[in-house]
Amino acid sequence: GPGDVRADVLVLGAGPGGYTAAFRAADLGKSVVLVDRWPALGGVCLNVGCIPSKALLHAAKVIAETREMAEHGLAFGEPSIDVGKLRGWKDTVVGRLTGGLTGLARQRKVTTIRGYGRFTSPSQVQVELADGGTTTVDFEHAIIAAGSEPVRLPFVPHDDPRVMNSTGALELADVPRRLLVLGGGIIGLEMATVYHELGAEVTVVELMDQIIPGADKDLVQPLHKRISQAYAGVHLKTKVAAVEARPEGLVATLEGETSTTATFDRMLVAVGRRPNGPEIGAERAGVVVDERGFVPVDKQMRTNVPHIFAIGDVVGQPMLAHKATHEGKVAAEVTAGQNSYFDARVIPSVAYTDPEVAWVGITENEAKTAGIQYGKGVFPWAASGRALSLGRDEGFTKLLFDETSHRVIGAGVVGPSAGELIAELGLAIEMGADAADIGLTIHAHPTLSETVGMAAEAFEGTLTDLY
Ligand code: FAD
């Protein structure tokens, strides 16, 4: 029958993809209904992802920098950490942003409905309201932005309160004495950085032969070296084979070259995220969900059902907020009849660890696998005056160029603020810049950004100034 509410555009999920799509569609004159099960808009990124993690990482950075400066004549003593107050500040940061979204939705007259939505047909979604009861929404277009969830492991006692996923780790209930981090990817290592600086003895276990397996091995080496020295352990090519919840702790069996057991007070499981495609009644709308749970889409973010779109984590890798927002705009514009496409050449990745690791475009690994002929320009930060004046010399900037055209096709940066520096390289790749364009661009001295120009000069053989 006819639904309780009607929308030109129904958006399912209010994360970075969903709220962006909703706002863009409203700006283009559409009546928009935005459905989310959570009390605050913003999805994973604002509530339990990008933003709370970056607030805590800032605290970690302040601690690390004051400790480092003690070696250079500026000592503050041990930090006194009020975990409750830190948690409160992190929650305030999140609250300001999610509250801002509520205001922006109201300004645009986007109707928000709080509850769990599922398709009941190709033109209707039913929402189990958070306050009880149900409502139905008839739509002309739908945009699926249902995001993803942390992966659970069968041999881990997830119901034990000492076992956390990223959401639990961000709650910052306490600082455990011994923390096991299962998974040496970006999320695991960011939370390891936080808990290490707050005083936990952190052990990281990674199945692959390097941390952050998507990045080049040389790029993650400075981070690997630093955390190997600072943490209780960083174990590569190691798997957690069993975890037993005992009163005295979580006893984990680690299988690497040898098999050992160790006891931990808490454990963070950060082994990846799975898309929410299977949870939304897609079959009732005729929308295809693949065997991994992703919703396949074309370059206009259309699913196999032409008036239903999907964006963000639920459509595939990389599961990043800035990919979701760009896809959200495309989907909204297409529902409004515009001829928009998602045609980004590259999407940057950043680990906000210490040091930060950032890369964009093709990696050396990928270039080698694909047989792409490339040249390389590297500038080590040991020769950067700015890096040394920050008390850090382990970073480097690496640019990859197409061997014939000399256009930049990939870049990696490791060191403090690498996540900020990678932006210029994304722009360079999008604009088809070559090594001369980058090398001849005058970067301010002394900045970390000038290492980008110098890496291009290193490739061209014109590098003269090492400072
Ligand atoms: P999500 O943000 O996952 O939002 C989906 C929304 O849909 C949620 O609000 C959910 O409640 C709702 N929902 C799902 N199903 C239903 C349903 N059936 N009915 C109603 N509501 C539903 N990315 C970065 O780019 N930078 C970072 O620094 C970064 N840090 C991260 C740190 C952590 C700890 C984590 C976990 C992730 C991080 N990410 C980061 C990834 C980023 O959070 C995601 O890529 C991004 O949130 C995806 O946006 P989305 O719109 O696809 O979906």
From TrEMBL:
One of its GO terms (biological process) is 2-oxoglutarate metabolic process. It comes from the Bacteria. Binds 1 FAD per subunit. It catalyses: N(6)-[(R)-dihydrolipoyl]-L-lysyl-[protein] + NAD(+) = N(6)-[(R)-lipoyl]-L-lysyl-[protein] + NADH + H(+). Its EC number is 1.8.1.4. Keywords: Disulfide bond, FAD, Flavoprotein, Lipoyl, NAD, Oxidoreductase, Redox-active center. It is an enzyme of class 1 (oxidoreductase). The active site is a redox-active disulfide bond. This is Dihydrolipoyl dehydrogenase. It comes from Geodermatophilus obscurus (strain ATCC 25078 / DSM 43160 / JCM 3152 / CCUG 61914 / KCC A-0152 / KCTC 9177 / NBRC 13315 / NRRL B-3577 / G-20).
